[in-house]
Input
Amino acid sequence: MSECLDRLMADLAATPADVRFDTMEAEITRRIVALRDEARVLAELLPVRVASLVLALAMGLTTGAALAASAMVTPRPYAVLSSAGHFAPSTLLEGRD
Output
């Protein structure tokens, strides 16, 4: 068993490293700086993002309120013996008042 382990350890020692350690520190520093720059840009754009969200919400509420107000139908008098012409299928399908 130890001969097999010794041979495996020798093979592992003979294989070249797949990472260049002399450039690793510079690469890590470059990535950290890039992440900090990205975080700074996102923090600077936060007011713009919030303003656009508030604007979109206000536009949606205004549009929804306008549509809801236009969809309201004025109540028509309805008596038991009256002809309810406004409930006729032809007026309901065509959208006439």
Q: What stands out?
A: The mean pLDDT is 82. The helical segments are 2-14, 24-44, 46-71, 89-94. Residues 73 and 97 are 8 Å apart (CA to CA). The longest helix spans residues 46-71.
